[in-house]
Amino acid sequence: MKSILHKANSRGNANHGWLQSYHTFSFANYHNPDRMNFGVLRVLNDDTVAAGMGFGTHPHNNMEIISLPLSGALKHQDSMGNVAVIKEGEIQVMSAGTGVFHSEHNNSEQNEVKFLQIWVFPNKQNVTPRYDQISLKELEKQNAFYQVLSPNADDAGVWVHQDAWFNLGKFETGKTDTYTLHNSNNGVYAFILEGDVEINGQRLEKRDGFGVWDVKEINLTALSPSYVLLMEVPMNI
Fold first, then answer.
1. Separation between Cα atoms, residue 40 and residue 122, nearest integer Å
2. Residues in domain Quercetin 2,3-dioxygenase C-terminal cupin (predicted)?
3. Using an 8 Å Cβ cutoff, are 182 and 162 in contact?
4. Which of 64, 166, 167, 194 could form a disulfide with 160 if both were Cys (CB 3.0 to 4.6 A apart)?
5. Residue 148, Cα to own-chain centre: how many angstroms?
6. Which domain holds residue 196?
7. In total, how many domains does the chain have?
């Protein structure tokens, strides 16, 4: 097994007043040549946006962009004509492809919104842009990982143009689960949303990131009530 550990307090940080953002990988003004990506996982931003504020209209192309609200709600608008509100308990995906303009704003004038912004390099260039969002309520399981993203439109969760699988899991203290990789050439990046866990012998705390590869499975034990995101991605870009 090969691994890399990113402690929560080692992340890049940008405080714009209206936006507090923690960058696991190099992003915007935070540049660390040793932390450019984990395989095709390019961006993992942990964002908090103040009430009534947000990201103005801006362009993207040839990137799979995933948003996962952790509390509150985001209002999304894009050049494809989509206008939507994405709430905690939902997941959003946008394939930028040949190019798209979009904006993301806090949908509340009173409360902040917290969400993960995740970028994945696609395995196909210049695809037709697309947008999707779903509720995760029907997928949720107790004390087990459940799939929220895959390469396949017919599978559980949203889909992307990449051989990637994302799983979430909420665990009570002492509970365990094993995640088996779909492809032995992939790696898994675990991001601890809440709690304390042990993964393949490594103890992890809230907002720690832990990437592993050259493994067939991930073994997790919850050391406290925990919420974990697993991102299985190809290691070769």
1. 8
2. 148-233
3. no
4. 64
5. 10
6. 146-234
7. 2
Domain for residue 127, yes or no? no
What gap in Å lies between CA 209 and CA 215, rounded to an integer? 17
| Per-residue b or e along 199-222, where b marks 16 or more CB atoms closer than 10 Å to that residue's CB | beeeebbebbbbbbbebeebebbb
| Confidence bin at 204 (pLDDT 50/70/90) | very high
User: Residue 58 CA to chain centroid, in angstroms?
Assistant: 20
Instruction: With a cut of 90, say whether residue 237 has pLDDT above it.
Output: no
Are residues 114 and 169 both part of a single domain? no
Widest pairwise Cα distance in the chain: 47
Are 173 and 90 found together in one domain? no
Domain annotation covers residue 6: no
The closest alpha carbon to 65, from 52, 54, 78, belongs to: 78
Going by the DSSP 8-state scheme, the letter that residue 142 receives in this structure is: B
Give residue 49's pLDDT.
97
Domain assignment present for residue 203? The answer is: yes
Distances, alpha carbon 44 to alpha carbons 40, 71, 135, 177, in Å: 11, 17, 21, 24
Residue 174 burial (10 A CB sphere; 0-12, 13-18, 19+): exposed
The reply to whether 18 and 115 lie within a common domain is: yes
* Letter string b/e over residues 74-112, b meaning 16 or more CB atoms within 10 A of that residue's CB: bbbbbeeebeeebeeebbbbbbbbeebebebbbbbeeeb
